[in-house]
Amino acid sequence: AVPLVVAINTSTAAQNGMLIRDRIAMEEARNLDIVMFDKTGTLTKGEQGVVSVEIAGDWDERRVFEVASGVEGDSEHMIARAIRTAAEERGVSRTSVSDFENLRGRGVKATVDGSTVHLGGPNLIQTLGIERSADVAVFADEAGANAQSVVYLVRGESEIVAAFALADVIRDESRRAIDALHEMGIEVAMLTGDSEDVARAVADELGIDQYFAEVLPEEKDTKVAQLQSEGKRVAMVGDGVNDAPALTRADVGIAIGSGTDVAIESGDIILVDNNPLDVVRLVRLSKASYRKMQ
Ligand code: ADP
Ligand code: MG
């Protein structure tokens, strides 16, 4: 039988917008040293929009959007949606592509008119070993300073033909959640596949103690392990497929309810209302409930 305290606890949790899949994790939540948040879709709304475009090759803006929206055609990523929307807004239709490939945590790739086109962020540029032109680097630096993410359209393996700056919105509740965690003596960290300067801007804005940027999907859980090896009890909060191993690795894995199925299946606790403040409620509820049990 379920102990009475835990039964009460679980229904209280449900009233507080959280679903508990693992009761041991719920109990662990009162002992946390650090909470690590994924950036995109967790601290931010993940509703990105294209705010500016830098043309860097001989394709005009129309061609750039035809190709970019074509290459993103089969991707469910928030950035892909933003690029397709921007193309539609410009009245541009997608070019047809073949051999679509999802380069997880980096971007996408497809064949257009017989040649390869890549579209992706800083991790892609690094993987391909591309040196950006001065103009593109300035564009990216300015965007980054404004916490805008940049993705690059690459013709072949090395020619950047355009760069897009995308703006996302920080959730109102993120700041309050981080302040409240600090008041409880809990550190806050952030993890993202996005660039160093975007990560820094968001971390500064929110008062985050420590961040990891340009992290590849296969490295996310090792960042959680790194914190654990420092003797810390870690909660991970995430929404994406890429966050799943980190959610599993963490002492308390917290999935955002609107996140991907894989993230939800990997979480110990699900935040039904997608509200970072519910992480604070979770810690409070854990402290209150398990104190009673002792
Ligand atoms: P995050 O860690 O920011 O939640 P991901 O791990 O999904 O996001 O992606 C990491 C980075 O890879 C993104 O910030 C972006 O630069 C790039 N990327 C991923 N998917 C795409 C895509 N479909 N189109 C363009 N860029 C992408
Ligand atoms: Mg995410």
UniProtKB/TrEMBL annotation:
One of its GO terms (molecular function) is P-type divalent copper transporter activity. It is found in: Cell membrane. GO terms for cellular component: plasma membrane. Keywords: ATP-binding, Cell membrane, Ion transport, Magnesium, Membrane, Metal-binding, Nucleotide-binding, Phosphoprotein, Translocase, Transmembrane, Transmembrane helix, Transport. Its main location: membrane. Belongs to the cation transport ATPase (P-type) (TC 3.A.3) family. Type IB subfamily. This is Heavy metal translocating P-type ATPase. It comes from Haloferax marinum. The chain holds residues 298 to 591 of 649 of the full protein.
